[in-house]
Amino acid sequence: MCGAQCHVVEVSYLAVTLVPTGCEATPGFTTGGRDDQLHSIDLGHLKRGSTVVVSLRGNAANVRLLDATNFNAYKAGRQHKYYGGLVRKSPHRIAVPRDGRWYVTVDMAGMRQGARVTSSVNVEPPPLPMARSATPASLSNVQVERPPAHAADTDQTWDVFVSHASEDKTDIARPSTRR
């Protein structure tokens, strides 16, 4: 399956045809008793916030987005809940309300005989989470340690590292390292 990104379905009062566009599509289901009017596509697992985009060319069609439980009830002719309805303007966008397995159905039930529509279904991923800017580091976390006290008459040698910007080398860094 190519992630439900490439399904084109032609639905008419007489026939249902699945045509893949640009990649290998996995056909969905057709249901008994309504094979001449219904086509459905298993979109697989979708994340909340994804958007199912159904584009229609031709007449209007009934478009439903159903979770697995409601899809099974719909196929069995039982009461079911869905997102969508009669779509007359294309493209039609349906937001996925929660994570789970989802199906799209396109049917011509209630349409005049001879009506035809070609539909394509694409899934857009959910938007990325809001970016948060990191807070600037505070200098209060920097530890300052005094060098150990030493007697002036000892022969100890100390190494010192001076960190500086290159443009400060001549005016600040070199003069501060001279004895």
Protein described:
This protein has 179 residues and is mainly β. It has a domain at 7-124: Jelly Rolls (Sandwich). Helix content is 9%, strand content 34%. It contains two helices and nine strands. It has helices spanning 68-75, 169-177; strands at 7-12, 16-20, 38-46, 51-58, 61-67, 83-87, 92-95, 100-107, 116-124. The strands form two sheets. It has a five-stranded antiparallel sheet, with no helix packed on it. Strands 3-8-5-6 form a four-stranded antiparallel sheet. The chain is rod-shaped, with a radius of gyration of 33 Å. The relative contact order is 0.21. Mean pLDDT is 74; it is low at 1-36.
What's the gist of this structure?
By secondary structure, this protein is mainly beta. The protein is built from two helices and nine strands. The protein has a domain of 118 residues: Jelly Rolls, CATH 2.60.120.
What share of residues are in beta strands?
Answer: 25-35%
Overall helicity: under 10%
Structural class assignment: mainly beta
Overall mean confidence score, pLDDT? 74
Task: Using the coordinates above, name the CATH class of the domain at 7-124.
Answer: Mainly Beta
CATH architecture of the domain at 7-124: Sandwich
H and E string: EEEEEHEEEEH
Radius of gyration of CA atoms, rounded to a whole number:
33 Å
Low-confidence stretches: 1-36
Strand order across the biggest sheet?
2-1-9-4-7
The rough form would be described as rod-shaped
